[in-house]
Amino acid sequence: MAKDFPALNAHHRDFIGKQHVFFTATAATGTRINISPRSTDLFRVMGDNSACYLDRTGSGNETAAHLKADGRMTIMFCGVDGPPLILRLYGRGRIIARGSADYARLLAAEFADTEPLGARQITWLDFDLVKTSCGYGVPLMDYVGERDTMDRWAEAKGPDGIEAYWRDKNMVSMDGLPTGFGDQD
């Protein structure tokens, strides 16, 4: 049965801590809905009603464009091993620009001042609703490990190649919205 909570509790935090993948969902008026999978290795619970993740380069930057235009965001975790559960965080997100003071502070405090090659921004979510549901329809799966594909891609591109890729692929969304990428907070 679905249950609503105004904030994360200890059980929710424990569940999130055991997951290996989460999904972000965003949209803005007149745009396609975007759903992106992410590894939890760069996800951080920041409080009872806030979380963030260090966002690495992607083929687009839909999340940033939607947050700039609208702000609504949902993050979803699915228990694919262990007891079934789906947990969603509903709220408003924002992008913390790479190179900004807030980015540097969070990178130092939450990510051991380690910036993987290709890190482009930090995505922050302030949420006012935590919703759980049964997860009975989620298949059981075994976690094998993290892929090294992103690291190998970033290493092959190098810093200059990544910056060129950002200019080419991350400045506007597929629907033509500006992402704000490269702006300083």
CATH class: Mainly Beta
Q: Give unreliable regions as ranges.
A: none
- Indicate the structural class: alpha+beta
As for the CATH topology, it is Pnp Oxidase, Chain A
Radius of gyration: 16 Å
Averaging pLDDT over every residue, what do you get?
A: 95
Strand residue content: 25-35%
CATH architecture verdict: Roll
Distance between the termini: 41 Å
What about the largest sheet? 8 strands, antiparallel
- Please give the share of residues in helix: 25-40%
String of helices and strands: EHEEEEHEEHEH
Number of structural units classed as domains = 1
Q: What is the H level of CATH, i.e. the homologous superfamily?
A: Electron Transport, Fmn-binding Protein, Chain A
Question: What's the arrangement of secondary structure elements?
Answer:
Elements: E1 3-5, H1 10-17, E2 21-26, E3 34-39, E4 43-47, E5 50-56, H2 62-69, E6 72-78, E7 86-97, H3 101-110, E8 119-133, H4 149-169
Antiparallel strand pairs: 1-8, 2-3, 2-6, 4-5, 5-8, 6-7, 7-8
